[in-house]
Amino acid sequence: MELTIAAGLASSTLLLSNLASILLASSRLKRRHAIAPPDGAQPVSIIVPSRGVEPFTQETLQRAFSLDWPRYELIFCVAHAEDAVVRLIDAAIARHPNVPARLLIGDDRISANPKLNNCVKGWQAARHDWVILADSNVLMPKDYVQHLVAAWRPDTGLVCSTPIGSRPDGFWAEVECAFLNTLQARWQYAGEALGLGFAQGKSMLWNKPMLDANGGIQALAAEIAEDAAATKLVNGLGLHVRLVASPFQQPLGQRTFAEIWSRQARWARLRRVTFPLFFAPEILTGAVVPLIFALIAAASAGVGLPTTALCVLAVAYVPECLLARSKGWYLSPRSITAMIVRDVMLPAIWARGWLGGAVEWRGNAMTIHSKAITELEEIA
């Protein structure tokens, strides 16, 4: 009897925590709506670190040149002149002579983070006090800048957006949507609602004078992940990380299991190194642990296991689907299957996060130990 009660209580607590996170996230999120530029809009510099050609590169480039903001400049940063994306960026700049844009080539080795190294020259060249660091695979809406600026408050040190997976091509891309959207984005917005906002490096709006007065972009080299360093820097100043109310899309296209595993294992390892106390309870997210407790309780009480499993899965995944539907995120008949596969992967990814060894980051092999990056090797 005691086992039944304890296991049932544990399962119920975890399922209620899952539901609470969905409700908290939903309270912070808004369905996308257009925002007009404010009167007296400040000029903005947008730095886009780029590497390689991806399926949606042409479209994301076009979106960057089509923003509805009175004054902005685009600064594209590429580490190597022979990169195939250089030709596409040059062509896009030529097609849009009315948008101030530059391509800067070079690699400033200030850290073991290749993306941050790529951004240094752009930060130094930025002409305006408001600077956005935007990953090249962000699908910017016309009111991209407006959404970032609208989230800024007097006590804000940084505004950012988690990526929302869209346009998946194939089942494994739908699994990545399940990771990005109703799991990772949901918990990030729930954290913000609880006063535990943390940065996401896809889109980051900085006040340049503020960051320059506190070490400049080089300060983001304090951690292997620039968003982790940004979170700690902003919190150390007594300021807050804010999230946009309507996060921006990242079109996915095709994905493979190996790509998803590599990416999620890398992120898990980085979270483990930079925020171990927050990473430790991640094993409790998803449906696997509450399902195990529920089945233990059902077996002890003589209740049917299939019925118990169906009830747990319904309580876990129906609210996730409702969250995606209410916010206009990707949802399909295969989404629940994708969520189940995601949750089956989660314990293995969590365990991988505690181990050393190499992970891959944008073509770079990294060996990450608990206190530092000890190896960074460019893959030929």
Keywords:
380 residues; alpha/beta; Spore Coat Polysaccharide Biosynthesis Protein SpsA, Chain A; 7-stranded mixed β-sheet; 3-stranded antiparallel β-sheet; 13 helices; 48% helix; elongated; disordered C terminus
Please give a structural write-up.
The protein has 380 residues and is α/β, with parallel strands linked by helices. It has a domain of 175 residues: Spore Coat Polysaccharide Biosynthesis Protein SpsA, Chain A (Alpha-Beta Complex), CATH 3.90.550.10. The protein contains 13 helices and 12 strands. The strands form 3 sheets. It has a 7-stranded mixed sheet with strand order 3-2-1-4-7-5-8, with helices on both faces. It has a 3-stranded antiparallel sheet with strand order 10-11-12, with helices on one face. A two-stranded parallel ribbon has the order 6-9. Helix 1 crosses helix 6. 42% of the residues are buried.
How is the topology of this model organized?
Blueprint: H1 2-28, E1 44-50, H2 57-64, E2 72-78, H3 85-95, E3 101-105, H4 114-125, E4 130-134, H5 144-150, E5 156-161, E6 164-169, H6 171-193, E7 203-207, H7 208-212, H8 226-236, E8 240-243, E9 249-254, H9 257-274, H10 276-279, H11 288-301, H12 305-327, H13 335-353, E10 358-361, E11 364-368, E12 373-378
Parallel strand pairs: 1-2, 1-4, 2-3, 5-8, 6-9
Antiparallel strand pairs: 4-7, 5-7, 10-11, 11-12
